[in-house]
Write a structure and sequence with these properties.
Number of helices: 4
Mean pLDDT: 92
Distance between the termini: 57 Å
CATH topology: Ribosomal Protein S5, domain 2
CATH architecture: 2-Layer Sandwich
Radius of gyration: 18 Å
CATH class: Alpha Beta
Strand content: 25-35%
Largest sheet: 5 strands, mixed
Strand order of the largest sheet: 1-2-3-5-4
Number of domains: 1
CATH superfamily: GHMP Kinase, N-terminal domain
Structural class: alpha+beta
Amino acid sequence: MVYSKRIDGRKFDELREIEAKVGVVKSADGSAMFRIGDTVAIAAVRGPRDLYPKFMQNPKKGILRCNYNMVSFSVDERIRPGPSRRSREISLVTENALLPALNLEEFPNAVVDVFIEIIQADAGTRCAGICAASLALADAGIPMRDMVCAVSVGKVGGKALVDLNKKEEDYEEGSSDMPVAMLPRKNEISLLQLDGDMKPDDIDGCLKLAIKACKKISEIQRNALMGKYQMEKEN
């Protein structure tokens, strides 16, 4: 059956409602909240700071470490606390998505830690986490070549669409999910994964949707950062 109308009434190329804030964790060096639909991610940055034990240090540049976690109450089914195979995989994926945007050569022998907590989940959690982490790194003053924004695209019931929600991911007639992260000003892709089956032409079409959506997300990210510093300037 062709997916002719989205479950939540959105257009096929329409993002869910987005909200972004920075400076939400006062004790952190940088922090952010990123909400897309009913998925909410909080990111906090600690560092740059000396990395111990010393044998892990890189004398040429700093190291980025990301820790992704879904809290137990973020979904209906209770999640067992502590690291899981999925959380470790997404932590590594997040690091790789963010690294192309960072200039860590200024921080030899140091580490920048990014902690991402998903406090509410309705699909697209890794993408929301990447968006929140990028904002938190910018808020912490880490030198960046560009922001990193991410969105999930895919095919549901044979129809290409952007920003899948949980019901669309679980669509009975079949769905595929492709998380994409990019540096929007440079038009560089830093993450592309695929869960499901798609033909090359379908991937190309979904990628075009992702690039268009990431441009919108990037504007929201920049407005969140400008809003905070404009408020500080006025105070």
